Amino acid sequence: MTLSEEEQKILDYWDSISIIKLILEAEKPLGRYQFTEGPPTANGLPGIHHVYSRSIKDIILRFKFMEGYWVPRKAGWDTHGLPVELEIEKELGFKTKKDILDYGIDKFNEKCRESVFRYIKEWEKLTERMAFWLDMENPYITYENDYIESIWWSLKQIFDRDFLYLGKKVVPFCPRCETPLSSHEISLGYENITETSIYITFKLLDPNYKDVKIVAWTTTPWTLLSNVAIAANPDGRYSLVEYNGEKLIIATTLLDTVLGEGNYKKIREFFGSDLLYKKYEPLFPYFEHLSEENGYVVITADFVNTEPTSDNISTGFVHIAPAFGEDDYNIGQEFGLPF
């Protein structure tokens, strides 16, 4: 008997004794250990990565069951989100949101509902074959009213306990779909591209750095209007140099990359933390008043890279615009930068 045949024999035995039913009905002394399956989208085929993640989940569930916990293994199906909608858009040949509106939102939603369980047999087969024991007969389905109402109920409980607050968050936005995107949805179409970048200088206003400019590098020059800070690596080493009659500050390890070997004269070296809270002149005059609100200041951040790599042509400084980019917003909150 082959290994595959031996596995199938064991699976058949578990099925004959209704193993999942036995697990769900078992009396366990330590009480409940709740598990709700992070639901897959069944309008797409399962992949090997689902086997990896489910194997890790299953190890925990079996361990907690053997410890003496009752472990309800609630299955689920994700029937919302862009993956479902994009699949139907492709089928119907739609290119824009207007196509959906012309077709009819109700008709489009119905098409989506029809598609969400397209590959449910393949998902059930995978689940059974890898012995990932789930209560597949009583799954939660995200488009059903019971589930939707449970989300509203949960939000109401959070609100009543004063755990909700109004804040801001930078999120990716799709101009074609006219909607914010989750990190998962971004990954569906993520690709590396070559982008035009620029170097730009910021003149320091500190008397100890008279006529000295910080050199920053960016691939998003359209965000410079919203610049309110420059980030340096606190532990990185930076050099003040003379170059073409100007005094510039650049990360020491990146001097040759940016200015060219032998094209500059080094004056002195220091750490990025030595520049903390140094003020600089705004690039544009429109928001000069923000200088009085902790704007146009050098801050420090660990995510700033000062090491040379094959694709790193930065200067060791990052221009910060809290309204553009998650890192910018988070560091802006940390340092109390204007938004």
UniProtKB/TrEMBL annotation:
Mark the transmembrane ranges. Answer: none
- Write out the annotated subcellular location: Cytoplasm
One Pfam family name from the record?
tRNA-synt_1
Enzyme class name: ligase
* Molecular function in Gene Ontology: aminoacyl-tRNA deacylase activity; ATP binding; isoleucine-tRNA ligase activity; metal ion binding
Q: What does the function comment of this entry state?
A: Catalyzes the attachment of isoleucine to tRNA(Ile). As IleRS can inadvertently accommodate and process structurally similar amino acids such as valine, to avoid such errors it has two additional distinct tRNA(Ile)-dependent editing activities. One activity is designated as 'pretransfer' editing and involves the hydrolysis of activated Val-AMP. The other activity is designated 'posttransfer' editing and involves deacylation of mischarged Val-tRNA(Ile).
Alphabetical UniProt keywords: Aminoacyl-tRNA synthetase, ATP-binding, Cytoplasm, Ligase, Metal-binding, Nucleotide-binding, Protein biosynthesis, Zinc
Please classify the protein's predominant subcellular localization into one broad category: cytoplasm
What is catalyzed by this enzyme?
A: tRNA(Ile) + L-isoleucine + ATP = L-isoleucyl-tRNA(Ile) + AMP + diphosphate
Alphabetized InterPro entries for the sequence: aa-tRNA-synth_Ia (IPR002300), Ile-tRNA-ligase (IPR002301), Ile-tRNA-ligase_type2 (IPR023586), Rossmann-like_a/b/a_fold (IPR014729), Val/Leu/Ile-tRNA-synth_edit (IPR009008)
GO CC term (a single one): cytoplasm
| A single BP term in Gene Ontology | isoleucyl-tRNA aminoacylation
- List the protein's name: isoleucine--tRNA ligase
What are the EC numbers?
6.1.1.5
Tell me the subunit arrangement. Monomer.
Is DNA damage tagged as a keyword?
Answer: no
